[in-house]
């Protein structure tokens, strides 16, 4: 740019010419310019062009030359006056340009140094140099040194006019509101798809997650509407490939991408035209946005002032008006931002559309959709974009859009092509810092990048630039500014950007103006907290704090700043139990202080402020650059090794690998990061942890403590259920139950809230009101859930009582119906067909009532899903601060559980594609080769344990040329699913249909966390595979699978319960119909009446009463068994005593084979003994008792018949006779005349509901009744009937007792002993450890049996082979930590312990079958044999076969049955 020269000053005959300060600064900067790798070593030469100066006099031109020579010295190359080109045509214009060209050629020829290796700079390089030094004069959009009043550049050309016309046409068609959807339809559809998915996720997560009441849950109509929009958008995306590119994008392809190589001139020209087109459109929206923000700020201040004292209705109305105005302004701000986004069309947007078209084409071609032939060749577009990124050094956008999303496969393939041609080490540098802190400018100064710079929000998302430096590929990342008011997400977004930089960089520059602020320090501390949990960092990033505008830059200040930072970060790490040195690298040189970039002063002549870039700043920037690359040499060890030798991180080995890693990291941060990054400070995390611990303690004490809510509700349920059993009105009992339960809930809630308030007031520091309200809400959840459980249990009890009452009422109704029919038919018999019609109509009405009641009491799948999510989310909230892995688990709503199909997200293909990645291709290839040969990596002979390993399952036929993806899907994933099958399954106990307790859910979640964590170390790492994204996505998928498993189990249990209710109802129908028809038929004779009554009494006594009595008998046997085996520990001790201590060698083998099956065998024998002893006494008693009831019935009938012989009577009179006999019996017992209640009480209580038919001859009726009872008892003898019912009751009791005493089924991985812990635990232990040789462990090489005690030091120090592969662990602790961490800490004896006498005797007499089975060499010491061998009782080599046959019926599965 040419300055406006002031008019010359004539002093006599002397002409004095001076240089303006701003031009002087430019000239000196150009003279001092030194860029690495640019220009010859002799330095720069300056040729001055005087524009529009054709009429200058020779005297004035000579003065200018003299002035420039004085200023520039040897760097002055000459001065050339150029006429004004505007208006010149033909020869005059050509002559002026030729003169300038000749002057430049002459200067270049004189300047060229033939010995110099460096080429002369091209035009693009000169442009970069100018931009670089122009940036040095322009920082944070402050006023540049160049004059601001000069004319602006305004480009004009035919191509520019065409582009402007196309954009104007698109704007005319759609308006600015939807301009981008016309210009960039594919990328806008992708953005809309991302917005809808984010909106759907927010909608599903709003309100009370998993609330069974549905309060705050998303509206189903809203979810359905979103789903419909998503389906329509997915459908529209397919149609885009059938359309040509939009006119502006097609013009971009033809004008800029037409040649084989990009031209910087065309790119720059296209960018200038876009700038000229959008600038006037953006300006009014920017002004409007500023006005709205100012107005909102003013209203906010007014609102804050009014809110301080809302003491009148007028002020309350004023507050409401202000809030409405603020909300309306926020709405207008959103519209302004949307308009700005629509009008902000840049050249990056064109590339984004090109990439979106390419990715969509690849995606749809995979499903058979072919794109139009007119679309550009994707491979050519990718090559040109690589040219854009590498040769033109233009930034590429990795994260873009709103919400932010990562680039797709287009960028990955571009980087793959670039990496294939440039096989050098990759070094990644990123910068983070608050907004408007000149981050982009810092990178431009340091590395010559082309990142955009301006005041405010100039970088959106994340940009990358590729450079070549010091023999390696340098990738520089520029992130969006932190702590911005414009960015969505607030603190979460800041944490995501910071973590993204740390997880994807070798070096992170933390750019900050002035001293380190508390906000930045808090952000870094929260990021360390999230980094520890998310585990997305594959290397340890190095942090370098660049503190700007520092006046005192002494070494002491460096040390003080760094010590202060390390102190704060270390304190935060200690609070959160983190290890700072494992997360980041922060050494003594991790702080660099920079001076201010500019100096300013007043011009003594004009009085205006003059600013210039200081030489000191340039020198310090150069020193920082040297420091970075000096450290780069030291950090090169991180990427020097190849991925296959394990020295470096594979994610940083090549450009495409890094890109895939960065995309994976962002997916993890976007989905799971908000769970951890919503905290503002470490203190907030600690307060939250303290509150959740307090809520957990108070809720546990209030619900499960002594006389807690659980106990009270249990007592209330028992009392009301008993009242229902006593035939009290169900409506009255139900109303009293619900009222009493609500009183219990209110009292419990009141007490817990009061206790919470007392604890909060006792704290020294005050907790914010929002946190207190959140704690109160969390405290209400377990209380409300306990109330819901009690109501549901009561509903089931009430439903059974109502069913019983209604069935009885129906029978009474049938009885009255028959009586009315008898009266209406005047002695005529009722046809059976008509009777059946009457019954069918009445029963159908009753059945419809029952069906409606079943539907009301049956939980739907949505209701069950809400319960599952409620309990899981509650457990997560209570324990997330205690366990690290709980923090990264999502709080899922029920809608997510219902929308995800297990068959889809848990399939082999999905798991292999989305959750697993190859870490070591060599190990994967070896594993695949072993599988192809029919073996496995662990099929070779073990060095520690005998017996072979089962090969991995063959999932179809695997091609020998199959890639890593095929190996992951067909070999690795099925093995992972098999290993985790038990941990991701949640089976309910037999006959259980209710939601498990929170403790059971917590135990299942912990078990799954441990299984997923150990799976990577004990299997995946050994075959060269690992989880993507640090395992966070896979862990959440596994927990989703666990929830699905529980949901399926509950749904099946609920369906079984409903089916059982219906089956019971149908069984009653058949019996009731037979009863009804028999009553109809019974009108014909007394014999028929007697038969009906006998059958009804038989059902009441021989079925209902007998079953109730047998429960007490079976409970007696249960009590005796539990006295011998009170718990799992006692049962395990009994098994050891009966086998090893009592020297039963056959039992020892059974104990060794499967201690759980052996324990089951012992229990079954014990239960059988108790059963025989009890039934020997109880069976005859029950037979006599049942027979006595029937004898009393027939005796009472005979007495009644004799009394009323020959007289007509009613059946109700016989019932009255039984009641009078029962009353007489009670009075005799009270008077001491009888020993106990007789059968009349039972007979009167259980008198059947039958019609009150007329008895013509009571005596004959009594005789027929006796004959019918005898016939029924003769068909099914009482002894047989009692025996069958007793056996069924005892089998049910046996299963229940075994479930109580079998305990933990885990067995010691060394000796096979059973865990005997009886509490809820995750760490196993057993009281009797055996010799490892009993479980097949042998010495490496010699295969000698390992006769050292399981707890001996020698066994602890011996190497152990993996259970899953050939990997050899150096000692027992490493083996257990990797594969059986639940057995740590493992007991250890200080002395060398071989075995005690019990184990020695057992080994000596059982060694032959053990050595034969496990292929061990017998190395038994001779003194053992002499002391303990029993020649006539020791076992032979085939003893294992007999032991297996004995245990099969108790659940033992032979290990070698396939062989």
By helix and strand content, what is the structural category? alpha/beta
Task: Determine the mean pLDDT.
Answer: 76
Low-confidence stretches: 1-13, 116-124, 135-153, 207-218, 632-647, 935-944, 946-962
Strands of the biggest beta sheet: in what spatial order? 6-5-8-9-7-10-11-12
The main sheet comes to:
8 strands, mixed
Strand coverage percent: 5-15%
Overview of the molecule:
The chain is an alpha/beta fold and 1459 residues long. The strands form seven sheets. The chain has an eight-stranded mixed β-sheet with strand order 6-5-8-9-7-10-11-12, sandwiched between helices. Strands 1-2 form a two-stranded antiparallel sheet. It starts with 8 loop residues before the first strand and ends in a 12-residue tail after the last helix.
Please provide a brief summary of the model.
The chain has 1459 residues and is an alpha/beta fold. Helix content is 61%, strand content 6%.
């Amino acid at each position: 740019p040419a300055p406006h020269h002031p008019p010359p000053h004539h002093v006599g005959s002397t002409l004095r010419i001076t240089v303006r300060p701003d031009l002087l600064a430019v000239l000196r900067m150009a003279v001092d310019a030194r860029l690495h790798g640019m220009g010859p070593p002799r330095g720069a030469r300056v040729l001055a062009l005087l524009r529009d100066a054709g009429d200058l006099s020779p005297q004035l031109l000579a003065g200018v030359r003299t002035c420039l020579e004085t200023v520039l010295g040897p760097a002055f190359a000459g001065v050339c006056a150029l006429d004004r080109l505007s208006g010149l045509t033909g020869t005059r214009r050509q002559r002026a340009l030729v003169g300038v060209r000749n002057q430049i050629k002459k200067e270049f020829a004189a300047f060229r140094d033939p010995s110099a290796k460096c080429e002369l700079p091209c035009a693009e390089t000169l442009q970069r140099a100018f931009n670089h030094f122009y940036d040095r004069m322009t920082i944070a959009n402050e006023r540049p040194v160049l004059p601001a009043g000069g004319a602006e550049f305004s480009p004009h050309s035919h191509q520019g006019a065409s582009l402007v016309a196309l954009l104007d046409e698109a704007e005319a068609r759609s308006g600015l509101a939807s301009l981008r959807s016309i210009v960039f339809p594919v990328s806008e559809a992708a953005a809309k798809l991302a917005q809808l998915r984010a909106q759907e996720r927010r909608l599903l997560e709003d309100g009370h997650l998993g609330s069974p009441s549905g309060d705050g849950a998303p509206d189903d109509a809203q979810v359905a509407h979103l789903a419909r929009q998503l389906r329509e958008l997915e459908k529209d995306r397919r149609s885009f490939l059938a359309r040509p590119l939009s006119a502006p994008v097609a013009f971009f392809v033809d004008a800029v991408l037409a040649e084989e190589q990009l031209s910087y001139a065309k790119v720059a020209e296209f960018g200038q035209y876009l700038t000229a087109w959008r600038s006037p459109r953006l300006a009014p929206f920017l002004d409007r946005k500023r006005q709205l923000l100012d107005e909102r700020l003013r209203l906010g201040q007014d609102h804050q002032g009014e809110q301080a004292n809302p003491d009148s209705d007028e002020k309350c109305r004023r507050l409401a008006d202000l809030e409405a105005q603020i909300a309306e302004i926020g709405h207008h701000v959103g519209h302004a931002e949307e308009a700005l986004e629509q009008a902000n069309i840049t050249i990056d947007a064109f590339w984004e559309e090109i990439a979106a078209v390419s990715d969509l084409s690849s995606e749809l071609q995979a499903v058979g959709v072919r794109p139009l032939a007119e679309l550009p060749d994707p491979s050519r577009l990718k090559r040109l974009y690589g040219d854009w990124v590498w040769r033109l050094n233009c930034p590429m956008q990795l994260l873009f859009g709103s919400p932010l999303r990562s680039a797709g496969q287009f960028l990955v393939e571009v980087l793959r092509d670039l990496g294939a041609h440039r096989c050098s080490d990759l070094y990644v540098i990123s910068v983070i810092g608050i907004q408007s802190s000149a981050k982009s400018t810092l990178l431009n100064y340091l590395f010559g990048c082309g990142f955009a710079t301006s005041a405010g929000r100039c970088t959106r998302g994340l940009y990358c630039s590729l450079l070549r430096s010091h023999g390696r590929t340098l990738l520089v990342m520029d992130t969006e500014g932190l702590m911005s008011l414009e960015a969505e997400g607030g603190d979460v977004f800041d944490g995501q950007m910071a973590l993204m930089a740390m997880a994807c960089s070798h070096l992170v520059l933390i750019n900050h103006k002035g001293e380190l602020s508390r906000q930045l320090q808090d952000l870094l501390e929260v990021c360390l907290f999230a980094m520890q949990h998310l585990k997305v960092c594959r290397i340890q990033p190095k942090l370098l704090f660049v503190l700007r505008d520092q006046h005192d830059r002494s070494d002491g200040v460096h040390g003080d700043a760094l010590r202060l930072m390390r102190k704060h970060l270390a304190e935060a790490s200690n609070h959160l139990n983190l290890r700072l040195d494992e997360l980041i690298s922060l050494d003594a040189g991790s702080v660099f202080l920079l001076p201010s970039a500019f100096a300013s002063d007043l011009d003594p002549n004009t009085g205006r402020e003059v600013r210039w870039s200081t030489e000191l700043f340039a020198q310090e920037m150069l020193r920082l650059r040297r420091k970075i690359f000096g450290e780069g040499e030291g950090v090169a060890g991180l990427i020097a090794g190849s991925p296959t030798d394990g020295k470096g991180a594979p994610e940083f080995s090549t450009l495409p690998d890094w890109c895939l890693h960065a995309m994976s990291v962002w997916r993890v941060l976007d989905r799971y990061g908000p769970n951890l990054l919503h905290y503002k400070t470490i203190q907030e995390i600690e307060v939250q942890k303290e509150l959740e611990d307090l809520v957990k303690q108070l809720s546990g004490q209030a619900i499960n403590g002594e006389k807690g809510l659980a106990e009270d509700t249990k007592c209330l349920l028992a009392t009301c259920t008993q009242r229902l059993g006593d035939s009290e009105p169900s409506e009255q009992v139900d109303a009293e139950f619900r009222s009493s339960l609500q009183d219990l809930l209110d009292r419990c809630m009141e007490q817990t809230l009061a206790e919470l308030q007392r604890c909060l007031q006792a704290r020294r520091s005050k907790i914010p009101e929002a946190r207190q309200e959140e704690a109160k809400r969390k405290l209400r959840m377990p209380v409300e859930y306990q109330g819901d459980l009690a109501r549901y249990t009561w509903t089931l009890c009430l439903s059974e009582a109502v069913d019983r009452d209604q069935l009885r009422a129906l029978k009474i109704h049938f009885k009255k119906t028959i009586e009315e029919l008898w009266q209406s038919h005047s002695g005529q018999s009722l046809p059976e067909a008509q009777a059946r019609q009457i019954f069918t109509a009445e029963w159908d009405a009753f059945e419809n009532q029952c069906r409606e009641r079943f539907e009301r009491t049956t939980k739907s799948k949505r209701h069950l899903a809400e319960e599952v999510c409620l309990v899981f989310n509650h457990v997560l909230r209570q324990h997330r601060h205690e366990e690290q892995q709980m923090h990264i688990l999502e709080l899922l709503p029920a809608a997510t559980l219902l929308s995800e199909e297990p068959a889809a997200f848990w399939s082999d293909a999905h798991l292999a594609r989305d959750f697993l990645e190859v870490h070591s291709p060599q190990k994967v290839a070896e594993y695949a080769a072993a599988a192809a040969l029919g073996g496995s990596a662990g099929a070779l002979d073990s060095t520690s344990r005998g017996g072979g390993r089962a090969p991995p399952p063959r999932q179809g036929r695997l091609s020998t040329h199959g890639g890593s993806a095929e190996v992951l899907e067909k070999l690795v994933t099925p093995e992972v699913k098999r290993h985790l099958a038990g941990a991701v399954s949640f089976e309910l106990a037999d006959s259980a249909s209710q939601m498990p307790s929170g403790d059971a859910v917590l135990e299942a979640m912990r078990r799954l966390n441990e299984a997923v964590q150990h799976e990577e170390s004990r299997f995946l790492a050994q075959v060269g595979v690992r989880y993507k994204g640090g395992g966070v996505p896979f862990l959440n998928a596994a927990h989703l699978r666990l929830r699905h498993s529980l949901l399926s189990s509950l749904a099946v249990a609920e369906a079984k319960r409903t089916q059982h209710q219906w089956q019971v109802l149908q069984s009653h129908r058949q019996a009731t119909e037979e009863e009804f028809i028999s009553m109809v038929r019974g009108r014909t004779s007394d014999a028929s009446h007697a038969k009906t009554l006998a059958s009804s009494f038989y059902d009441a006594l021989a079925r209902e009463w007998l079953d109730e009595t047998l429960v007490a008998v079976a409970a007696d046997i249960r009590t005796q068994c539990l006295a011998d085996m009170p718990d799992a520990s006692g049962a395990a001790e009994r098994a050891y005593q009966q086998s090893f201590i009592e020297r039963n060698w056959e039992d020892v083998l059974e104990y060794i084979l499967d201690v759980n099956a052996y324990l089951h065998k012992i229990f079954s024998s014990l239960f059988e003994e108790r059963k025989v002893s009890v039934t020997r006494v109880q069976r005859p008693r029950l037979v006599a008792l049942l027979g006595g009831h029937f004898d009393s019935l027939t005796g009472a009938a005979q007495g009644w018949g004799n009394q009323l012989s020959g007289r007509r009577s009613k059946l109700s009179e016989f019932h009255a006779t039984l009641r009078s006999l029962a009353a007489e019996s009670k009075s005799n017992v009270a008077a001491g005349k009888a020993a106990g209640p007789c059968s009349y009480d039972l007979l009167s209580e259980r008198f059947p509901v039958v019609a009150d038919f007329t008895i013509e001859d009571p005596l004959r009726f009594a005789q027929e009744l006796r004959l019918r009872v005898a016939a029924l008892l003769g068909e099914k003898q009482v002894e047989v009937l009692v025996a069958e019912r007793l056996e069924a009751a005892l089998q049910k009791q046996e299963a229940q007792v075994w479930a109580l005493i079998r305990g933990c089924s885990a067995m010691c991985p060394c000796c096979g002993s059973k865990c005997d812990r009886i509490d809820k635990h995750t760490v196993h232990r057993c009281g009797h450890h055996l010799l490892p040789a009993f479980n097949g462990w042998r010495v490496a090489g010699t295969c000698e049996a390992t006769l050292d005690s399981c707890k001996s030091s020698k066994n602890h120090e011996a190497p152990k082979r993996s259970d899953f592969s050939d990997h050899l662990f150096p000692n027992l602790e490493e083996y257990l930590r990797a594969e059986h961490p639940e057995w740590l800490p493992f007991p250890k004896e200080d002395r060398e312990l071989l075995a005690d006498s019990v184990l020695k005797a057992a080994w000596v007499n059982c060694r032959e079958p053990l050595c034969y089975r496990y292929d061990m060499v017998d190395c038994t010491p001779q003194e053992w044999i002499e002391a303990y061998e029993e020649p006539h009782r020791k076992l032979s080599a085939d003893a294992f076969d007999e032991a297996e046959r004995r245990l099969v019926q108790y659940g033992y599965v032979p290990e070698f049955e396939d062989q």
